[in-house]
From TrEMBL:
<dbReference type="InterPro" id="IPR011322">
    <property type="entry name" value="N-reg_PII-like_a/b"/>
</dbReference>
<keyword id="KW-0614">Plasmid</keyword>
<dbReference type="Pfam" id="PF09413">
    <property type="entry name" value="DUF2007"/>
</dbReference>
<dbReference type="InterPro" id="IPR018551">
    <property type="entry name" value="DUF2007"/>
</dbReference>
<protein>
    <recommendedName>
        <fullName>DUF2007 domain-containing protein</fullName>
    </recommendedName>
</protein>
<feature type="region of interest" description="Disordered">
    <location>
        <begin position="70"/>
        <end position="89"/>
    </location>
</feature>
<feature type="domain" description="DUF2007">
    <location>
        <begin position="4"/>
        <end position="65"/>
    </location>
</feature>
Length: 102
């Protein structure tokens, strides 16, 4: 599953789920119950998750729907960067510590 929206706004979350459902894309909300831990102050964003294969389409749909409402910037969460290839030994440790080569 991949994050397509990260928000503390329950109205925006509900709207996004409705946009995706209208296009036949199932979604799940992660971290929805964090309000119990945070005291309902909205400090922790909720994550709207969809199937990895549908994530690019879902992001496009959300951004297009937001533009229709006058939003000027994309509202969807950016796609995840692929994880670097795992290697073993000291070289692998150094590579993980320094990040990807450029």
């Amino acid at each position: 599953m991949d994050v397509v929206l990260l928000t503390t706004d329950p109205v925006r979350l509900s709207w996004a789920r409705a946009v995706l459902a209208a296009e036949g894309i199932d979604s799940l909300v992660f971290d929805e119950q964090m309000s119990l831990a945070e005291g309902s102050i909205g400090a922790f964003p909720r994550r709207l998750m969809v199937d990895d294969a549908l994530a690019p389409r879902a992001r496009r749909l959300l951004d297009e729907a937001a533009q229709g409402l006058g939003e000027t910037a994309p509202i969807s969460a950016p796609p995840r960067r692929p994880a670097p290839q795992a290697t073993g030994g000291l070289a692998g440790l150094v590579a993980r510590m320094l990040g990807p080569r450029r």
